[in-house]
Amino acid sequence: MLIQELTLTAPMSGPMVPLEQVPDPVFAQKMVGDGISIDPITSELIAPCAGVVLQVHRARHAVTLKTPEGVEILMHVGIDTVALKGVGFTAHVAEGDNVVPGDLLLSFDADYVATKATSLLTQILITNGELLSGLEYGKGAAVAGTTPVLTLKLKAPVNVAHSDAASVVTGAKVFIPNHQGLHARPSATLASKAKFFSSAITLHKGSASANVKSVVSLMGLELDRGDCVYLSAAGEDAEQAIETLTALLNSGLGEECEPISAPEASQNNAPAQKVDDVVLPDDGKLFGVCASPGLAVGQVWQLQRAEISLQEQGEGKALEQEYFSQAQAKADADLQALTQSAASDEQREIFSAHRELLGDPELATKVLDLIAQGKSAAWAWHSAFEAQAEQLSKLKNVLLAARATDMRDVGHRLLSLLTGDAEQSGTIPDNVILIADDLTPSDTAKLDPKRVLGFCTATGGASSHVAIIARSLNIPAVAGMDKRALSLANGLPVMLRADDGMLHIEPAQSEVDRLVGEREAEDILDEAALMVATEPAKTQCGKHIEVVCNVGNVADVENAGQFGAEGVGLLRSEFLFMQRTQAPTEDEQFEAYSKVAAAFGKNQNIIIRTLDVGGDKPLAYLPIAKEENPFLGMRGIRVSLANQVMFRVQLRAILRASGLANIHIMFPMVTTLDDLLQAKALLEEERVALGVKPIPIGIMVEVPSVAMLAEQFAEHVDFFSVGTNDLTQYTLAIDRGHPELAKSADPLNPAVLAMIGRAVEGAHKHNTWVGVCGGIASDPLAVPVLLGLGVDELSGSLSSVPRIKAAVRDQNIAECEALAQKILRVGSAAQVRELLLAHKQH
């Protein structure tokens, strides 16, 4: 029985074209869905009806709406536009936004896209056509927001009985081979083939999953080339479906690409061996990014997360509500216990936040609504938390998107209680290096450091909650690990050198003994240095080098005295701005800066760096347009100058605090004199308005342009502070977070050292002093070359201060200068390290 008609108006202007004439067989054969195409004469895509934004493709060339009736409408601008990777497109909505007819969804540079893509033809498609009993197509020229392009005749809703009796069949792991990932064309091919099977079929990536028969659901996984996935199916033809579709995934779903081997992990009782058809590096070394430093030697243990079986239909509203209430109370009690027993403040904050997620009223309302519709508590809860996690994961703000992992962590905690599968993971044996596609904060907090000596994950990063917990437990960890690690067999001997982001497969015993010996010797030196940490750092020739610390929050300065820090060389003020929904007030900032100042003497320098965000550090309340290369875009001082109201608030707070200590101000990511002079002018305006005395002004030396023109910049500032992490990245053109290239981003590369030397030379001509606050300043091995280059101050992590001061005391400036000149003549970081080690041992 027909219950309703829904008319879609044109989302853009231009001639309407039948799908059969679109020069792409996937669209022409209606594999994605039925609909119509428009040859656009405008460069904006607007909403054709009311609905919620279900998905904005990461390449920003496609958006999907879901109407109140449940109809899913995919609008795909152009043919082969996914290859542009977002260049030329701007998204004006995000997943979860409610829109009304005429709201702007996307805009694009028509001239640019037309020259790069196969066609500008834009498809308007109904991806869940099973809801329709008929479809009428528009003809002629369409006017955006006015002309009807599709009239949908909707079926009456049908209640479908679901059976939970069918067993679930799981397929082998597949590495997505498609060069552009699983975009619309391969997704449509997979979905169309899946519809030949009666079984319910799901594609899994980590803890995320998608209905294989839904193109939108598949695209929502945002699968990249190399992503590890697997299929599961339940129904009479499940085995055949898994076999057929797994083969299709491996073959590239009709696109030209070579399969990527992704064998099943070995059984737990299998003998130690490498899987034959995975090609490992000849030197046995796989790389990722350091998440928690340290060295560990053990055997591989692959962590396999068991599937939880869910029954959709409930046992009655009252009973299911009671199940949910009891499980929620138990999960909250468990999280409260974890919060109270946390090993660090950071860990405590993580699980406190998990309790907030667990008690989210909107989430509970969705669960109770589904239970009222006859669903089981487990099915309702899984549906609700997965939807929220998916919505989070697609946010453009990286930090907020990372909270999807926390949502799924909370979700699986309660889900295991509802299903009785809480102890499903089994016991981890002793002396293992754990390897997993991903870990949740709860997984990590439960690890026993006596058994799990270290771990690697294929996902995540150095700033994730998992990394924070690993550091609090002193468990060496590497994130973003080469996915080939997932194929290593249990029992295989490995060495995890987390500081280097390296997993070494079957290392030679002599190599293990050497590194373990070095680590034990370093521990002894650490203890000796700490005993005299409060003594000044004077070279053997009597020169005092100021050794100060980098501070990431107020708590960091509580023990600064016992570590011997003589001040703060870098206060990262962004800790006040992150993890919140609005910028901190002037008073909030003043209070925080005052607390840091109070921890040090009146004569000790406190260098406060103004807000350094953008690139890899976005803010939820400070929208920065998505950039193809954010590290070359809106970062550091550029963000502050573009948001002067917020910048002036911070400048006033710093100036007010300057009366309490010897506070300096430092501007980050300065690249031009114009940026510096503009920032100084704003500071001077606020200083005069407040009537406070001038304070020392400095800049970060993080880009080659500043190092090369150091003499010109030094005329306008009181000090430089070299940020070697970024200076290395920009000098060597290597993303410091790149899982494969990061190992080559070595700040001891002679090119980087030459940049530091150039900056010091130019600065000293104007009596401008130079400090180093990047990672190299925490490395005792680097001290001689930095002193030889003329660096006046070293600012490292608080724990490194005693060893840095001890290293300074071992040096003679004349010898360091000779060593530095010798180092600047070699050609690689490896040769630099050889010279520094020889200097250390003589």
Automatic annotation (TrEMBL):
It is an enzyme of class 2 (transferase). Its main location: cytoplasm. It is found in: Cytoplasm. One of its GO terms (cellular component) is cytoplasm. Its cofactor is Mg(2+). It catalyses: L-histidyl-[protein] + phosphoenolpyruvate = N(pros)-phospho-L-histidyl-[protein] + pyruvate. PROSITE patterns: PEP_ENZYMES_2, PTS_EIIA_TYPE_1, PTS_EIIA_TYPE_1_HIS, PTS_HPR_DOM, PTS_HPR_HIS. Belongs to the PEP-utilizing enzyme family. This is phosphoenolpyruvate--protein phosphotransferase. The lineage of its organism: Bacteria, Pseudomonadati, Pseudomonadota, Gammaproteobacteria, Cellvibrionales.
